Structure formats: C-alpha cells, structure tokens
Amino acid sequence: MFGFLIGYFSNDIAIDLGTANTLIYVRGKGIVLNEPSVVAIKQEGGPSGKKTIQEVGLAAKQMLGRTPGNITAIRPMKDGVIADFTITEQMLKQFIKKVHDSRFFAPSPRIVICVPCGSTQVERRAIRESAFGAGARKVELIEEPMAAAIGAGLPVEEATGSMVVDIGGGTTEVGVISLGGIVYSGSVRVGGDKFDEAIINYIRRNYGMLIGETTAEEIKKEIGSAFPGSEVREKEVKGRNLAEGIPRSFTISSNEILEALTDPLNSIVSAVKSALEQTPPELGADIAEKGMVLTGGGALLRDIDRLLMEETGLPVIVGDDPLTCVVRGSGLALDKMDKLTGIFTSD
Amino acid sequence: MSELSEENSTPSDSPGAILHAERRRQKFSVGDVSRHLKLSVRQVEALERDEYQMFGGPVFVHGFLRNYAKLLGVDATSLIASADQRLATRGETIAAEQDSGHEEAGQQPAGDDGQKSVVPLFIAAAILIAGIAGWVLSRDEEPAPEEDEASMVAQQESAGATASSGDAPMTEPGAEISAEVPQPEPAASGAVPSTTGASPTPVVKEGPRSVLRFDFFDESWVEVTDRYGEIIYSDLNPPGVSQRISGHPPLTIVIGNAAGTVLTYNDEAIDLAPYTRVDVARLTLE
C-alpha cells in the first residue's frame, strides 16, 4: 500500500560496478559519482591486526603502487566480477554513503546494478548480496549489453537489430538486441586491464623495464592505438630497469603499443565476429545497415572503431560519452523499473 | 542540397554542405567515402543532403557524422551540434529523443527533481489530512466526560483499613459513588487496595446494571470489562478484601487467581471452575 510512498521518498540508484570505475546514477539527479573501483586498506598492529578502510575511489587509486607496508591499495573487482566480496561490499557502502541522502525519513534505496552477461550465477549472487549488504532495499540486476544499448540511445524496443560492443575494464560485452530483449550476448574477459597488462609485458620483454599499472594506463590513454595510422605518437616513460635495478626513462611509440595490444584486440575482434556469425540473418541485415555501437572506456582507444570496421566490413560508431553509457542505461532502466521488468535478469 | 536546408540556412553552413565541400576539396568521391566508412553510397549522400530520417536514431547520425568528419579532418563537434539544431528546427524527433534520453539518463543538473511527479505527495498529504480529520471526529463523537464512571463503583471495604487510615472513600475525587455501596467486611489484612484501576474518565452509559462481588481469600488480580468494551475495574487485590463492582452487562471478567476468589453475580454465586485454566478464570456474564 505504501510502496509508492516509500519509492517516492527513497533515492533509488543505478550502479555500474565496473572493474576500473564505479559510476552511480541517482534518480532525478543524474550521474553523481564516477570514481575508480579501488580501495586502500590500512592494517593496524601487525599482520593479525584490525583492517580498516583508509580511502576509497580516486584517493585510493592515487595510492596504487605507492603504499607503505601497512596500507594496501587493491581493486576488489576483477574481470567484471567480484574478486573480494568483503572489500567490494565496503566500497559500495562508502560510495552509496557519499551519494545517498541520509535524511531521517529516507528509506533504503532500490538499486539497479549491472552484471557482465558472461558472469556465473554465483558471481551474480555475490554482486546482489554485496548490494544488499551495502544497504539496498531491493536489488535488480541488468546485463551490461542491455544497459549499454539503452544508454547509447539504441532503439532497443523496436523490431530492428541493434548491436552494441561494450569494452569495459575487465570484460568486453557484445550484445545483439531486438524488441527489448537480448537476442545474442557474448562476453570475453578482455578489456582495459588486459590492455594495460599487455603493455607492461611488452615493455618488460622488449625494453627490460618494469612499469606499473598506472603508467601503463597513461601510455594507453595517450598514445595507445588499435589501428595503424599515418600519425605516429611518442611518449617518454619512466620505469625500473630490470637488469640494473635503477629507474630509467625511455621513449615508446604508438606503433609499438599497437603491437603490444595485438592479442587482446584480436580477442575482441573474435568476439564481435562470433556474435555476427550467430546473429539471425534478418537482424544481421539491420546491423549491416546501421552498424555496431561501441561503448565503455575501451571505445576511447584510438582507432578501435577503425579496426572493427576493417575487420568486419560494417559501419562502427562510438556512442556519445561512451564511458557513461552503461550507467545512463541503468538509470533509464531504473526510471522505468516498474514498466521494464523484462529487461532485468532473474538469476 | 536539399530543399529544406535551403529554406533554413545557406547551403554552405549545413553539416552536409560542409562535408560535401570538404570531400570535393580533398578530391574524394562518394564511393571512396563509402568504402572507407563502410556505409552505402545512399547513406553518404543522405549525410551530405542532411537527410537524417533514414538513420534510425540520433546515435547513428552522430556516429556517422563523427566518422565522416574524422575522415576528412573536420571538427565533428560543431557538425553534430549543427545537425541537432537543424533537426530541432525542422521538428524532427531525433534531437528531441536525444534530449529526453539525456535528461532521463543523467544529464539533469544536480538537485533537479523533475523526474518525480508531485501527485504522490498530494496523495500522501490527502491521506494524512484524512487521518487527522478522522481522529478528531472520532474524539468528538465520544461522550463528554461525566461522573458516571464512578457509578461503576469500584469500592473496596476494609474495616481495618478504614479505621486505620481514615481514608474511607477510595474513589477518585469528584467521582459519584453509586447507590450500591458495599457493606463493610472484616478484613484480615490492613492493606488498603487501590481503586485506581477503574478508569478515571466517567462515561455516560444507559441501561440496567449488574453487580459483581468479589471476595478474595488469596491475592488475586481482577479485570472487568463492560458491554462498551471499557475496563471498569482492574486491580490487584490482597486477601481478605471484598469488591463490589456494578456495570452494564455483559461483563467480561478475568480473575488471575480463581482458586482464591469467590464471585457473586447479582447475589448469585458463580462457580469459576468451568472457566478456569491454569488458575486464571475467563468468563463473560450476561
């Protein structure tokens, strides 16, 4: 009876709990939080001492690789799913606390949270439990391709095939959507993290230098490229020389980064081709006409659209503001939660 | 150039015209662009004519314009903004859809609660007002406090107590004692039971009354409720005390220690055994 009143007074939220970043959308307010999914934990009084959360989000990310012995900066999400349940729950609690009004009459929020379509039931349950543990009244899960498609503005409810490729931090999700449902979905555990890892390995192998994750990410953002272009960019990088054990600097070019990224990019191309192979022909015709839409942080890798265009022969476009497509889509689903029950997963 | 674009702006400042001019300047054919962007020739021509209906949504218009602009080295942002503007002025739905999509999906300024309808608040306020009104009315309908309460006569007589304390009347001040004044009885104990168990709020009640008499041989708690559902007596009584209570039947009685209590109803002894379970007797007397 009072459900609608509770719903009115609660600030329902949608969360894109990503491997790299967590974004939170609050109904009526928009995207109110966009922070790295990193937690810094302080260990007090020796190895068996009490662990407390030191920092969460951006402040914690700045600590990555720079912490003293008693502080550990960790990323509780890995490959799109929860790697450390307790820390993820604490991180969610902190983020929700940041954005959820603590008014006297404010009831617990309903939460829509995205899950990779390739996640197992156990992994989904972990995410659901984590959200309940963080104070949710009700938790609905939405698969990332669907959220990404809604957020990108694709006509998901029409009788036409729409293809979305969401390249996140931990996973790449490929979805073909028609009439409000997912016709095909595929997920590979390759994303921005694997790009960083590939860059670290390439530099260690070819330069004998060790660089950190943060430096690798900077290289990827600044000179990373997925397709050979006419413009070659260079960047000076500092790392530790493995032979000498001394910090050194060296210059790396975008062509080298392209070479480094070959393996993870091939995995993404394979996932896209596999999706096209398994798409019903009528929907395939729609996709051939309109192309596929790239979302997620990976879509910002230079010329990744060009790579997919050349590999598939189809038009490829990058969605508007690709980093926030998933959370915007989840937010739209949240706004229409009562009407669009079919788009949430029942697992 | 399309007819509409000519109506609304000069051909040179439309996104399609800019792309067309730049393509010709760079000596690209439509086929070249088509091959490069993996679009059909028809789609490239539509982009150059600013005919966006065939693309199925703003996301595709933006994406294709962005790709085309990137190919030619033109600033895509201004082209997309211009395309949106043109769509809006032409009354097409693409820009509107995009705007509404953005509003719903997070582009609203913080603190704007435009999403929430005020209807639920009105409903909540109406329910609250109705509740308060109902409560006030129900209070008004209740009889005014009168002295009748006292006529329920919850009076205990304890000769010793009377003698020792001198506080013989145990009723509330101002309460009218009924004619059914109980007879003094010798008390084994000098304890003075209170009569405050009876409700202090007198209520006007009509109709015949019945008289209950409790004789306590052991300590017992008693509660009596009249036909109006009002508890007319509720108290713990020490041994050796008698209580006379009058009220409108049927009277619902709960006796905490039935074995130590003798009940008389309108001068007729009542056997409590059939109503007793684990020392507690519960009965209703008509």
What does this structure look like?
The complex is a heterodimer of chains A (about 350) and B (about 290). Chain A is about 35% helix and about 30% strand. Chain A has helices at about 5-10, 60, 85-100, 120-135, 145-150, 190-205, 215-225, 255-260, 260-275, 280-290, 305-310, 325-335, and strands at about 15, 20-25, 30-35, 40-45, 50-55, 70-75, 75-80, 80, 110-115, 140-145, 160-165, 170-180, 180-190, 210, 235-240, 245-255, 290-295, 315-320, 345. In chain A, the strands form five sheets. Chain A has a six-stranded mixed sheet, sandwiched between helices. In chain A, β15 (about 235-240) and β16 (about 245-255) form a beta hairpin. Chain A is flat. The two termini of chain A are about 25 Å apart. Among the domains of chain B are: about 5-100, 434 Repressor (Amino-terminal Domain), CATH 1.10.260.40; about 210-285, Immunoglobulin-like (Sandwich). Chain B has nine helices and ten strands. The chains are: A alpha+beta (about 350), B alpha+beta (about 290). Chains A and B meet through α1, β3, α5, β18 and α12 of A and α5, α7 and α8 of B.
Short description:
The complex is a heterodimer of chains A (347) and B (286). With 347 residues, chain A is α+β, with helices and mostly antiparallel strands.
Features:
heterodimer; A: alpha+beta; B: 286 residues; alpha+beta; 434 Repressor (Amino-terminal Domain); Immunoglobulin-like; five-stranded antiparallel β-sheet; 9 helices; 17% strand; rod-shaped
Write down the Rg of chain B: 46 Å
Give the spatial strand order of the biggest sheet of chain A. Answer: 3-2-1-9-10-19
Report the strand count of chain B: 10
The main sheet of chain B orders its strands as: 1-5-2-7-8
Helix vs. strand class of chain A: alpha+beta
- Please report the two chains with the greatest interface, counting residues with C-beta closer than 8 angstroms to the partner's C-beta: A-B, 38 and 36 residues
- Structural class call of chain B reads alpha+beta
Summed up, the helix count of chain B is 9
CATH fold-level topology of the domain at 4-101 in chain B: 434 Repressor (Amino-terminal Domain)
Sheet with most strands of chain B:
5 strands, antiparallel
Which spans of chain A have pLDDT < 50 for at least 5 consecutive residues?
A: none
The rounded Rg of chain A comes to: 21 Å
Discrete helix count of chain A: 12
CATH-defined superfamily of the domain at 4-101 in chain B: lambda repressor-like DNA-binding domains
- Overall geometry of chain B comes to rod-shaped
N→C terminal distance of chain A: 27 Å
Specify the biggest β-sheet of chain A: 6 strands, mixed
Helix percent band of chain B: 25-40%
Order of helices and strands of chain B: HHHHHHHHEHEEEEEEEEE
This entry's quaternary arrangement is heterodimer
At CATH level 2, the architecture of the domain at 4-101 in chain B is Orthogonal Bundle
